[in-house]
Design goal:
The protein is of the alpha+beta class. The chain contains eight helices and eleven strands.
């Protein structure tokens, strides 16, 4: 490795060329809200303006835990979206974590921070500069890299120019990311609303069927039995006793059906055992999965208990259906400020970047419904997962202050 301190040197760009580059970047940033088109345009402009051979634009993903290649000069544009780098790994990950530029004039493979990607043909390039892309309202947005085939002594002015370009791109990309997240959220919310309406209609039909086919019919029969008993009063005590006995059985059956219908709306276990007891009972009911529990026995407002119970119910169902897990851990804690529910499984996991919240491929309605339940009561759902490393679902809900 030959990484040298940045020293003043010859200027790569004249003032006119710098202004022309900035105008092109501003035009690209103003052309639309897409993150990928902006990154691709910036990569092409930067290589042309700085006389470098290739430029890579890595953008921080929505979880703020890794970088994804979002723009590159051809032929590496085919790798956009395929290259991911956790923060702290590789040169780009180091720059993202430390928010400092890195300049390597030659032999970058000997730098202990360097991590090669075969598809990016790192060995073909000897010199590089990597700078953070930051913006005041959004913080770190990503990392900008330029590489050259021949050895090159990048100057302080080169690095400063790339930092300026990075800040300019970061502002536009921050807005593009916010727009993308908003559009995705609105689309997911629309899908969720449709699913909720459909679920409500299904639930109404189920309740109507239960009431019509079960409760209503039993009440009609109960009325018949009481009428028969009434007619037999004073003439045949045995008939009265028989009809009243049958009526009592019908009352018991009707009450059972009514309780079953009501339990579909609010689990009676919450009223009987509280949230901790309800979660313990729920964990025991999942026969296909070994669920360990750690629960704080505390009562919360009814609407928060119901939201957390339904989130746990949906999450455990998802684990059974999709995770191929053998074990899960359910933890519930609460203090004066917030309640926290966490479910960790040892299943196959998934890529949260390729399958974000609400994606159809991951049975998105289940994930999204959990998120919406948390948000309805003022909380937040967080999902952490990696292929082969299981999944962690955390619901955090603020608690109202005691009067």
């Amino acid at each position: 490795m030959n990484a040298r301190p940045i020293q003043p040197g010859d200027e790569v760009l004249t003032t006119d060329r710098e202004l022309a580059l900035l105008r092109e970047l501003i035009r690209a940033a103003s052309s639309g809200p897409g993150v990928e088109p902006l990154a691709a345009a910036a990569a092409r402009m930067i290589t042309a303006a700085t006389g470098t051979d290739v430029c890579f634009v890595h953008v921080l993903d929505d979880s703020d835990r890794s970088l994804t290649l979002t723009g590159a000069t051809p032929p590496f544009d085919q790798e956009v979206g395929k290259i991911r780098l956790p923060l702290g790994e590789g040169i780009s990950g180091w720059v993202a974590s430390h928010r400092e530029p890195v300049v390597i004039s030659r032999d970058k493979e000997s730098d202990p921070r360097y991590r090669p990607f075969e598809s990016l043909r790192g060995s073909d390039f000897t010199s590089m500069v990597s700078v953070p892309m930051e913006t005041d309202p959004g913080g770190l947005v990503g990392v900008l890299n330029v590489h050259t085939v021949a050895d090159r002594d990048f100057t302080a002015r080169d690095v400063e120019l790339l930092l300026v370009i990075g800040r300019l791109i970061a502002g536009a990309m921050h807005q593009a990311r916010l727009h993308r997240q908003l559009v995705a959220r609105e689309r997911a919310h629309e899908n969720f609303v449709e699913q909720v309406i459909q679920a409500q209609e299904i639930e109404r039909r189920r309740l109507a069927g239960d009431i019509h086919d079960g409760i209503s019919q039993r009440l009609v029969t109960l009325s018949y039995r009481l009428d028969a008993a009434s007619r037999a009063v004073g003439s045949d005590p045995a008939v009265v006793a028989e009809q009243l006995g049958m009526a009592r059985e019908l009352v018991d059956l009707t009450l059972g059906e009514a309780r079953a219908a009501i339990s579909g709306l609010r689990p009676p276990v919450l009223d009987d055992l509280g949230l901790a007891g309800g979660l313990a009972s729920l964990a025991r009911s999942v026969g296909q999965l070994d669920v360990d529990v750690e629960l704080t026995d505390v009562r919360l407002p009814d609407h928060i208990e119901l939201a957390l119970y339904r989130i746990a119910q949906e999450c455990l169902q998802n684990v059974v259906k999709h995770a191929q897990a053998s074990n899960a851990r359910l933890t519930f804690t609460a203090d004066d400020a917030r309640a926290k529910l966490e479910i960790i499984d040892n299943g196959r996991g998934f890529d949260t970047f390729e399958h974000p919240l609400g994606a159809d491929e991951m049975g998105g309605y289940g994930l999204l419904s959990m998120a919406e339940r948390a948000e309805i009561v003022g909380g937040r759902l967080n999902i952490r997962s990696r292929p082969g490393s299981g999944t962690t679902v955390t619901a955090t809900i603020p608690l109202p202050s005691a009067p």
